Amino acid sequence: IRYKDGEGWHDAKVMPRGPLTLDPSAAVLHYAQEIFEGMKAFRTEDNGIAIFRPDANARRFRSSAERMAMPELPESLFIRAVDELVKADRDWVPSGENASLYIRPFMFANDAFLGVKPASEYLFLVIAAPVGAYFSSGAVTVWVSETYTRAAPGGTGAAKCGGNYAASLLAQAEAKAQGCDQVVFLDAVEHRYIEEMGGMNIFFVFDDGSISTPGLTGTILPGITRDSILTIAREKGMTVREEAYSIDQWLADAKSGRLTETFACGTAAAVSPIGAVRTKSGGEVKISGGTGPGPVTSALRESLIGTQRGRVADTYNWVHRVC
Ligand code: PMP
Questions:
Q1: Residue 136 has pLDDT above 80, yes or no
Q2: What is the ipTM, given to two decimal places?
Q3: Domain count of the chain?
Q4: Which domain holds residue 122?
Q5: Strand pairing partners for 125?
Q6: Nearest CA to ligand 1 atom 3
Q7: Test site for ligand 1: of 201, 203, 265, 272, most ligand atoms within 8 A of the Cβ
Q8: Does the C-beta of 168 come closer than 6 Å to ligand 1?
């Protein structure tokens, strides 16, 4: 779908995937005016196809657009575009517990000029591809970056824009070089408080049965899985806190046993246990023995995935049927 100032959104079409033609001075190539979303379509128990909370993705897309001085794409148009693509690709939606069709809606500035100002022409596209489980199995090992931060106060941390990810690649490469699966970012001011991972939010489980996750301070991505887990945990009667939690406290609580589980959550990873944390200064600390998911992680994971697949009652109307 194309956008032009004065004309609005127009020219919507579903077409076979192929290369795009861009002018070398297209604004996105110079000033990174680009935002995206990540979502999944699943086969349900009755062999239909459903998408999880696309309205939440549409709302986050709208707020990312606002932060990046891009035009508003109406939520209904976002959802219709995704629905049309999934219907066209329905035979590519795999079955199986961990398989899904990953959907990537994105928007970028494509008018040709070199001035530093918001563009007046944009393209909104949706592409999709079948995917399996994000992490192969067992528990994830994470690396806490003491060198790089992801987002500063007042910056673009809460927006899902390409630039945030460009800035995180070196930290993610550092984590891989340390033999870890994912990077954990600390806050940019004090370098103390845990924010989120390269592509996931993070939750902590304590021995009193409560859970906590860093609050939405404007520097982390408001994950839709994070929001769903908070809602499910509250429904289960758990004590839930959104609060700042420092790296020192995390390591101390893991050693003392006050912290019993930690898990990562996001569209790609669903809910995945974290089994070990590595830091430059502190070496490796195991969490709940470093093995598979603990009981709280497993229960929350089953509630989330069960809702997505139609096994668990969809109390909040989160499951959007495409066909
Ligand atoms: N944080 C970051 C940096 C991410 O890229 C993602 C994935 N979109 C998340 C958190 C989790 O968000 P969601 O649950 O909406 O996928």
A1: no
A2: 0.99
A3: 2
A4: 2-131
A5: 106
A6: 199
A7: 201
A8: no
